[in-house]
């Protein structure tokens, strides 16, 4: 409490306990012949009761003493002295003093209980709001910053987190008594016992939210690791299938050309050489995909969120496959104002692979749709490609899933999203969907 506030409280107490009983006595004095001494005592007790309810017990007790003195001085013979000739006045004043002190005590206890209930309600409301806000934050630094602001405002003091115990006599409370490395909070002014109890409860709540956040992050890391293992297995399966066919063709054609016992005419030699060249091109494409996948994994470690124009994203993705998509028709509902958030390079790579798959297995035309939805926590983006399928999908047990699809899946995972590819055998339509999310704020 500041010196100015303390001085104001002392002036208020003096006015209630000393000045007002004198004023009440002076107001009654002209009409003293209309009242008995007992009536005047009752009127004075009214003021004592009001002061007891509105102030504390010490001020009310002082008001009682001053009221008794004023009644004796102004309304009891001999006037303007504290001498009492009639013993019945002594009994009246004694009863007045006792009643006033009892009222002061009871009112003081009531005020104390009311203040305790109000403080408890305020603390409970603050802890509830703190728990709700902390659980909505994703990082430990955000949680500590919000804790400093809200608890500092509630306790009307500066609250600061520090990773190490400070030197000196500053008020310091650890985040965890069992682990000193977690740091704690410094308060700019000494706290009362009630404030310390509240701060300790709030810090315990923060620690529990910290533990929950760490567990959630560990769970997310385990989930990401599992997804990476799944992606690796899919990659190996895809490479096993996609590389086996061209390698077998190259080995067969080259062994035929190298066999001295087999006589080949020029047309057969040219045909086998052409097979080797074409299959080598396929192998080169597969290795390009492997390098692209490696690049995606490297970039995903340092994901950079940006605001992206969807039309520009589509144009850049098409430019990445310029040779294949020269005469490819893209029908889209994306307007010039449509935007999304994400890593622009990774999303370009994913969209380029989706367009390439549609070109490779489709009829030369694809439809691209973009949708966006949001709530208080997240914004969800979705790119959906649909096209007619003219190449029947293989169904062998060792069939590769295609590195393009794996790249799209990895990009989606880095953006907390998913990639799906579905083929409707009845309508011969393929649907590729890339969905990802961004937290608000």
Describe the structure using short key phrases:
3-stranded antiparallel sheet, 441 residues, alpha+beta, 5-stranded mixed sheet
Report on this structure:
- With 441 residues, the protein is of the alpha+beta class.
- Helix content is 61%, strand content 14%.
- The chain has helices spanning 3-28, 37-54, 57-75, 87-136, 140-155, 193-258, 266-300, 310-320, 344-361, 403-414; strands spanning 159-162, 171-174, 184-187, 306-309, 329-332, 339-342, 365-374, 378-388, 418-424, 429-439.
- The strands form 3 sheets. It has a 5-stranded mixed β-sheet. The protein has a 3-stranded antiparallel β-sheet with strand order 1-3-2, covered by helices on one side. The chain has a two-stranded antiparallel sheet with strand order 4-6.
- α6 (193-258) packs antiparallel against α10 (403-414) and α9 packs antiparallel against α10.
- The radius of gyration is 42 Å and the shape is rod-shaped.
- 24% of the residues are buried.
Draw up the topology in text.
Layout: H1 3-28, H2 37-54, H3 57-75, H4 87-136, H5 140-155, E1 159-162, E2 171-174, E3 184-187, H6 193-258, H7 266-300, E4 306-309, H8 310-320, E5 329-332, E6 339-342, H9 344-361, E7 365-374, E8 378-388, H10 403-414, E9 418-424, E10 429-439
Parallel strand pairs: 5-7
Antiparallel strand pairs: 1-3, 2-3, 4-6, 7-8, 8-10, 9-10
